[in-house]
Amino acid sequence: MKKLMISFCLIALLLAGCSTASPEKAKNDYKIGILLSDAGLGDESFNDSAFKGLEKARDELGILFDYKEAPDGKYEQKLEELIAEKYNVIIGLGFSVQEALEKTAKKYPDQQFVLIDGQSDVANITSITFKEQEGSFLLGMVAAMTSKTGKIGFIGGANFPVIHHFENGFIEGAQYFNPKIEIISDYAGSFDDPDSGTSIAERYIKNDVDFIYHAAGFTGFGAIKKAEEMGIYAAGVDIDQFYIAEKTVVTSMLKNVDQAVFNMAKTLVEDGKISEKSFSFGLSDNGVGLADIRIIKLTPEQQTAIEKAKEDIVSGTIKVTAEKGNSQ
User: Of 110, 147, 182, 311, which one has the greatest count of Cβ atoms within 10 A?
Assistant: First the structure.
């Protein structure tokens, strides 16, 4: 119900002018279309962040934009609709749309596409990825510093490589600060099932987990709300999720999809096209990071440890694992 209400509000705002460009800025009327990932608008996470970036591009650069959702998984159909609407660039958001995006891109070689959260070799697709493991490492340190029981938990949405980045970084960061920390991991199998997130969180908490980190989209909303209900700490993901549960969310691992989308739009407006084949954003370029730490108070020594770890990751002294057996 909350998701439906959020989506309704967002749609109302769209009708008020999501695709209306500022006349003094829209010199070329550049248009961007986006196919959102499974959870759609109102996930308070990945999709909402990308949408925020497009809103900023509309307001500051004068671009026109519109979006499609495909909760039924009919990605190719929605991409075909965007093709028919003649956008300069079409974005596929999330690894779940990659197969359909690549198939469509091969069919329309003169159309420019962008894939966010996946790496593609198709000539007319620009890939944007993030080093989620780097920000998650810092968050793992915070979790280990915060935990009183010595048991913390990770909840993934679907069991895909990009979600392993979050999990691996979280585990390595927690163990970096406390080698004896116990970390439990599980996958819900979905990014839009808050009841599943609630169920996993409840099981964790009954087993003495006192800090939960999710990379599960709207599924994670359920986990955070259960953590709040049962009086333990949690961390958000993608955007600052403190306002979901202000007594529970210590910090969030920021994945600045909004800034990546805005920068892409800026390149389009300035250059008329996007020439780069791929981008990868990490701590060094503010692609990922931590939201403000609230609720708890770290000691000066703990704060210093986090800053030092960040410096060491950027310099390469600490190499955080993206995939098992594959350091990045």
Answer: 147
